[in-house]
Structure formats: structure tokens, C-alpha cells
Design brief:
The chain is α/β, with parallel strands linked by helices. Helices cover 31% and strands 20% of the residues. The strands form three sheets. An eight-stranded mixed sheet has the order 8-9-10-7-11-12-13-14. Strands 3-2-1-4-5-6 form a six-stranded parallel sheet, with helices on both faces. A two-stranded antiparallel ribbon has the order 15-16.
């Protein structure tokens, strides 16, 4: 692969409240996906599963005040079109939510090139994120890509290149970044309230039922393929394999399509700490865990932990067990104080001897972990043609994918890993 521009520490991190880095590449030219202040934003949705249904519900909540609608949809299974348009017992359907029936496409490239589509929402399995995002950028669309931004760190570099070349307004779907606690935490750290920051601690823990386990439906490998489902289109850039119902329904359990706990869950958490502590690529990372309980043919671990080291500090630890939901405190430890994310947003506790444990600062958050807020933020950036307004810009998405990429590769190889910026890949440390 050709050498990529070195994405050095703090080189892209945002410099304004809620914003992406105000680099010339992202601010000098008119951006793709620009909409006028009063123009309706027409959205095309690729992938019509549960996540896309959740997006439709949230977009319907803001459709009038934010002047947006879903005009096109794409999937590789006909049944998904019917469910998405007409609804299911737990979903009203976009025809009722938005008052019209969107255009249907079986080929995502036709949706991307539909002239009425202003914004492409990528809500597919991870292994498709890179290709669809790059093609949408090249077609001059704004993009909202579900987390993780890409399946691998190497792919994230290529997506960033396409964003830069096309001046795309690109929001990564880590909707927790629409909670202002993390940009506010960074201001507290920059003001010196914590002193030197040494360590961060986060988690994403769940307890799945004994008879299913993480991300497992009741699909069996021998189940027949629905006649109207295009299996080859699902596989796309992944390895070509015979139909396997478990790989389709339970794709988060297989390395070909997902990074498991780290890419599906840890990205939510590590992105927050990267933003709060103004971090970039880790200098070392490792993942540990295994398939400890649900040895049911899955490939990704059901228990996973990640440890990262950043140049000059801090270290960041993340716990992720899927069999126990007792959580860790989300906190940032400094020499002068400890910042703990808790109601009403976060509190800072003194580490000094004369008032140890005393609350010395409280932040009451605005916003929240909400898809509707995240879309409104994306639309505001589109209308202003200003990528610095984005709550979760692609640079932040890239840093998150690099972090979990080090952990996943470290787990597979049982080694500490690092990021080689010159070659744009994860390598042994």
C-alpha cells in the first residue's frame, strides 16, 4: 500500500467545541453534501436492519424541526424492504413515519449516485463501511457512517484520504459524542485542574442469556437461505464462503465482518477518552480475553480487555465482559485530581492531602447519547459547510479504530502492537 500522510499525535484532533480539526484540507473548499439553511436534507439509508430502524425513529422525531426525510433505501434482502417501509410489530415503518415511500435499491451504488440523495447513512456490517464511505465521498454526498468508522485501522486511513480529497462532511456514529461532557472534560484537563494525567479507566459490560450469548440469534448453520437474499452481495469485500445462516444473522461473532467487543462496543468508550484527553494514536496496545463461556462456533471473544499506552501518558484500560454487567467507574486519574463521569455529567475529586476526596468541580452535561442529536449536529455542519462543527469527526473515528485495532491484533497474535503511520498499518511493537 502506498505511504499515507503521517497522522501524528494531536495532528487532527478537534480544536473547537464539538468540532473536528480546523485544518485547511477541511475548511478551504466548498464541501460535498452542502445544504442551504432552509433546504430539506434528503437521506439515503444503506442497510435496513435494527440499527437503521432506530435511526428512522430518531430522524422522524426531528423531521419537521430539522427539515429532513428518508428518500432512498438499500438492502440485499427483499424482506427487509417490506419491513422497513411497511413496519413490523415493533417498528411503524418509514412510510408512516415520513409520509412517503422511499425509492428502493438493491445496489448501494445506485443509491449513492441518486441525485436526490444529499446524505448517505451507512448502517451495514463493518466490513462494508470503507467501500461505501469512500464511494459516497467520491459521489459528493455527506456521510453518516455507523461506528466503527471502518472494520480495520488500515481502512480508516483510506477513508480519511477520500474525505480530505472530497471535503466531505462526515459524521461517525458514536452518538455519545453529542454529550458535551467530553469536550468539557478536555477543557478541565487543559486548564490544569487534574494536573498530569496518568491513567483512564472505562468499560462496556453486559450479561447475555445463558442459552444465546453475545450477538447470537437462534440461527443454525444448516438453515436455508431465503430465496430473495443476495448472499454474495452481503459478503462483498469479505472472504467468499458458502451460505451460512449464522454468519448472516450473527455476523458480529466473526472476524470477517466485525471486530467483536472492541469495534462494536469499545469504540463508544475509547472515543470519549480520546476526545477528553486530546489523544491520537496509541504507541502500544494489547487485547486479552477469550471465548470463556459461549464456545458455540463464534470467532470473537466473549470476554475482552484492552490496554493502551499513549506517548507521555496516559494509559487507558477498558473492561468488556459479556457475562457480567458489574461495571467499572469511568474516570481519568491525574496527579491533582480525579475526573469521574457520573451524574450530573462529571465530578472532579481532589487528590491533594489537605482536601483529598472533596468535589472541587462539577459539570452538568447538555446533550446526550442520542442519535437524533447526532443527526441534528451533522445537518448543522452540512448547512454551514463547516466540518469543525461535527461532534464526532472522522479524525476522531480514525483514532478510535486505531486503538481497538491494536487491541484486536494483539489478542490474535498474543503480542503488544503499535501503529506504523508511514505504512498505515498495525505492526508488532
Amino acid at each position: 500500500m502506498e505511504n499515507q500522510e503521517n497522522l501524528s499525535r494531536r495532528g487532527f484532533i478537534q480544536t473547537t467545541a464539538y468540532g473536528a480539526a480546523a485544518t485547511a484540507a477541511f475548511s478551504s473548499a466548498p464541501s460535498a453534501g452542502v445544504a442551504g439553511a432552509n433546504d430539506r436534507i434528503n437521506i439515503g439509508v444503506i442497510g435496513l436492519g435494527t440499527i437503521a430502524k432506530n435511526h428512522a425513529k430518531k430522524l422522524a422525531e426531528i423531521k419537521d424541526e430539522d427539515n429532513c426525510t428518508i428518500v432512498a433505501i438499500c438492502d440485499i434482502w427483499d424482506q427487509r424492504f417490506k419491513d422497513y417501509i411497511d413496519g413490523t410489530p415493533h417498528f411503524k415503518g418509514v412510510k408512516e413515519l415520513f409520509g412517503s415511500e422511499p425509492t428502493q435499491y438493491r445496489d448501494y451504488r445506485e443509491l449513492i449516485n441518486d441525485p436526490k440523495v444529499d446524505k448517505v447513512l451507512v448502517a451495514t456490517p463493518e466490513h462494508w463501511h470503507e467501500r461505501m464511505s469512500i464511494e459516497a465521498c467520491n459521489a459528493g454526498k455527506a456521510v453518516y457512517c455507523e461506528k466503527p468508522m471502518t472494520h480495520s485501522a488500515e481502512e480508516a486511513v483510506r477513508v480519511l484520504k477520500a474525505i480530505k480529497e472530497n471535503d466531505t462532511i462526515f459524521q461517525v456514529g458514536v452518538q455519545g459524542m453529542s454529550d458535551d461532557s467530553y469536550i468539557s472534560a478536555r477543557k478541565v484537563i487543559e486548564d490544569g485542574m487534574l494536573g498530569q494525567v496518568f491513567q483512564c479507566q472505562i468499560d462496556y459490560v453486559r450479561r447475555y442469556s445463558d442459552n444465546s450469548g453475545p450477538w447470537r440469534t437462534h440461527a443454525k448453520s444448516g438453515d436455508p437461505k431465503p430465496a430473495d437474499l443476495d448472499w454474495n452481495a452481503f459478503l462483498g469485500p469479505a472472504w467468499k464462503r458458502p451460505w451460512d445462516a449464522r454468519r448472516y444473522w450473527d455476523w458480529r461473532n466473526y472476524w470477517d465482518y466485525s471486530g467483536g467487543v472492541s469495534t462494536d462496543l469499545f469504540v463508544h468508550r475509547i472515543t470519549r477518552m480520546i476526545n477528553a484527553c486530546n489523544l491520537a494514536e496509541p504507541i502500544r496496545g494489547i487485547g486479552m480475553g477469550g471465548i470463556f463461556k459461549w464456545d458455540d462456533g463464534r470467532e470473537v471473544p466473549d470476554s475482552f480487555e484492552m490496554l493502551l499506552e499513549y506517548d507521555g501518558g496516559p494509559t487507558v484500560y477498558c473492561l468488556g465482559t459479556m457475562g457480567n454487567k458489574h461495571s467499572n467507574e469511568h474516570c481519568i486519574r491525574g496527579y491533582e485530581g480525579t475526573l469521574v463521569f457520573e451524574n450530573p455529567g462529571f465530578n472532579v475529586y481532589s487528590q491533594k492531602d489537605d482536601n483529598y476526596g472533596e468535589v472541587i468541580y462539577t459539570h452538568t452535561k447538555t446533550g446526550g447519547e442520542n442519535q437524533a442529536l447526532h443527526h441534528k449536529n451533522h445537518h448543522a455542519a452540512m448547512r454551514a459547510n463547516d466540518a469543525s462543527l461535527l461532534n464526532c469527526p472522522p479524525e476522531l473515528g480514525y483514532y478510535g479504530v486505531v486503538a481497538v485495532g491494536l487491541a484486536n491484533e494483539g489478542y490474535k497474535l498474543k503480542k503488544c502492537m503499535t501503529w506504523d503511520a508511514e505504512r498505515g498499518r498495525v505492526v508488532s511493537a
